[in-house]
């Protein structure tokens, strides 16, 4: 009986416990049903989130153009390969939608993805084992070209899909890379790292959109998907002041000098001194922004201050003239100058001049003359005022990132005098160019800039346009004229150090510089032939400068007695001579063989034979596209002016594919634009292969893939125009 009572009691307890648990669970279910929440999480929202697919719609990054509309940077579509390995995705076994045969798939994909079959097979089998829906193949499966995608699609492999994505592409490779900069993809978004890509990143990026819809387990839209779309806002287009032809000339000659003389650095910039527009800018070493695997991405023109050497004398003489204390006919004793026994003397680079005038001192690049002007004529404090008026104490404000300002070292008498001939204090090339606009532009100093305008990529409407900005007036028009006369004497007079910089048909005003290099480990300045920064700042035509250029070459390998001016003058003369002609600047010197530009006549609708005969007779390179007899389009419009050997493309009424082997990137892009082809360019250099065979009829939107390769190196046997016996006349700043 007692045992029976205990059993009933325990049963009652268990029943009460079970009833309690049931009530708790039932109550919980009722609560969830009533509130549709668990732990403050809405079940409706959770379910909606689970069955809703959301994707970011990337905005297309704005393009970067040169001043004439040539594309310098744009988003190129590429593809990422994906392999669906979930067998349940296939509804009909006769038409499988998943990877049915991993071994065969890996074997066929390996050569097209340029990787090992085993690597791909391992990825596929790992995804199947882990019950993944799909797998990717790492870096080998990313950024695939349209050509590669089509080759893979032609294999008809089940389960292989592609995701379209954009990468930033620079069709001209190393062209103006220090200005354009480059952008990289991070966390799915392309961000500017340096150059214009960084400076204008916010405007170029635009604003991403998004799309969301309800889906099933296989990510397919439901019949009623409740789709929400916010369209992306594409980035704005940026037009630069860079001129493609001037920049191309500069890039070519810098490459030649880099190959022949192997300097540590080359720096060059070309500017319109009347506006402040930078027409070309370059450095060596440089980089290809499509693959910028270099340590230094900075632009030496704006980011690397150094002791400039004697180009600084331009502003020392200008200060003395403006202050009213300059007498060019006044005599001085050259060779050496010392203001006290406690201060190291200043030396000229030659001891053979004897008594010279201050005018002659400028032409010969006398350090003694510069020191005397600062110490005895202008006065050191007044000279500092002029240095500040020329803005050597601050950045130029150019619209590029990472600009650095030089440093005016002005504490001791020796430093103050040395600043007058380009030692002690440091400046950047762009600071010198900004200051020199006052010399070329009647005393008005202009702010340099590289962005011409901002254009809405959707509407084509100009949102912002830059114009010349006068930022100072350090000297008068009369002073600028007198300084130009002195600078011309550097190039044209017998004792002038700038004779190697003469142009054939334009007068040049300029100043040479040979800056010493301070070696901290040696505790002093380097010595020895070639261990300098050789430079030249020049402008032409002298009486009304339309172009101004600065070039410096650091530590070139000079054979024998080759003067340091040789690599610098090669760059200056080639760029200035060709650019002045290209810009139709009238020569101001007699020419034995004037270069005549050719004005393009009416072409559209004209006979192919007639046009070809007429233009070839004037020295223009003709490329005829197609076998038709009538010209329908041309790469130059009526009224355009071409120089001899320029290329013009003529499209006939029956366009067919020509052989474009050996063409440059610019020619290919121009060709594709004329025929409205879908162009894809791989590599850099000149065309090595083309996807459309010669003679194939061309239609709008046809796909043209081209592979470029660098040209084979050739020895450069050209010689400069200088006589080989000419002695070096560059100036060398003395050691402290």
Automatic annotation (TrEMBL):
Region (Disordered): 703-736
Keywords for this protein: Membrane, Transmembrane, Transmembrane helix
Domain PASTA: 594-654, 655-710
Enzyme class at the top of the EC tree: hydrolase
Swiss-Prot/TrEMBL catalytic activity: Preferential cleavage: (Ac)2-L-Lys-D-Ala-|-D-Ala. Also transpeptidation of peptidyl-alanyl moieties that are N-acyl substituents of D-alanine
UniProt KW Lipid metabolism keyword: no
Pathway involvement of the protein, from the record: Cell wall biogenesis; peptidoglycan biosynthesis
EC identifiers of the protein: 3.4.16.4
Name of the protein: serine-type D-Ala-D-Ala carboxypeptidase
